[in-house]
Structures are given as C-alpha cells and as structure tokens.
What does this fold into?
Amino acid sequence: MERDQNGLTIGAVAKAAGVNVETVRFYQRRALLPEPDRPYGGIRRYEAEDIARVKFVKAAQRLGFSLDEVAGLLKLDDGTHCDEGRKLAEVKLADVRKKLKDLRRIESVLASLVRDCCVSRGKVSCPLIDTLQKH
It folds into this structure.
C-alpha cells in the first residue's frame, strides 16, 4: 500500500476499498468523503478512516441506498442513532418490497405474453406487439 509517514495516497485508498480512484473523487465531490488538504507542491494524503468510509458508502449502495440516502446514514455513523437508522432502513425495505411486487407483476405479464406468442401460430399479429400497441 502506498503509504508514507503522512498517510495514504488516493490510489492506495481506492485499492484498499475495492473501488477506482474516480469513485473516491466522485464521493469527495458529493461530500461523502472529506478531501484532505494538499500541501504546497505535494499530494493529498488519506487515513485508514477514509478507507472505512468508502467501504461504508459501497456497502450502503449494495443495499440499495442512493447516495443522498447514504449521506443521511453517514450523519449517523457514530452508532448512537439506532432509531434513526432503523427508520431509514424501514423506508428502504418498504421501497424494496414495492419494487419486488412490481417486478412480480411484470414477470407475470411477460410470462403470459411469451406463452401467447408460443401458442398463436398462423396469426398475422404478434400477441406481444399487439398488447403493447393497445396500452
């Protein structure tokens, strides 16, 4: 890991967090990760806490949280706001359940249309295209 007595390079942070350098920069632009000062004529140096923060953001994203939602979660990162964290997670869970319900409905309609396409031999109009044109 690229480290000297003053900290880690952005490349080392990115590698340790499993992201690319542009992701780190993007998180900085979104104020999800503080940007260290750049010494005159030098390069910015990061700390181990920055790696943990990038990993936190990525873990929250994998759970479906948007970057705006992640920003809200980061405000709770001291671990003492469990009720607030739970409420945010409950909202996200309700959203995921709604999306799953919608996806099941879409799956059912598509499966039906695929079945209709397979059994309607000899017709000029495709049942899939016909259904989509009617809606």
DSSP finds six helices and two strands in the chain.
